[in-house]
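As noted in the main text, all predictions were made from sequence alone. Below is one such record, for Zinc-ribbon 15 domain-containing protein.
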Amino acid sequence: MFIIYGWRKKMVGAFDAFLYKCPYCEQTNTTTIAVYSKYYHIFWLPLFPYAKEAHAGCSSCNAARDDNKFGPELTKQAKEIQKEVKHPVYLYLLTILFCLVVAAVTVASILR
Ligand SMILES: [Zn+2]
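Prediction:
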């Protein structure tokens, strides 16, 4: 189906989990936490971000899982990382363009 609006997600950062042992291969410091910004889009142009999501992957055994399958230690680290990572400004593209158009129309009507 051809979807012109909805939501998408984009990776905005990847961080190594600190002193974390992979539950599958039991290797330490092989897990990377990737943070994604979820955002609404219209015609694939970002409107605004509304949530962050974390995924973890192990570089040793390639086990991957999303944040509802994290254990308590990884959940804690992922939440701290998600707090630090900001949504990139370009994910507000259409909102910024809309504000610029409104400002331009307002200025033009004042100058008349
Ligand atoms: Zn592993």
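The longest helix spans residues 93-111. The chain has one domain: 5-111. These features were considered when defining construct boundaries for the mutagenesis experiments described in Section 2.9.
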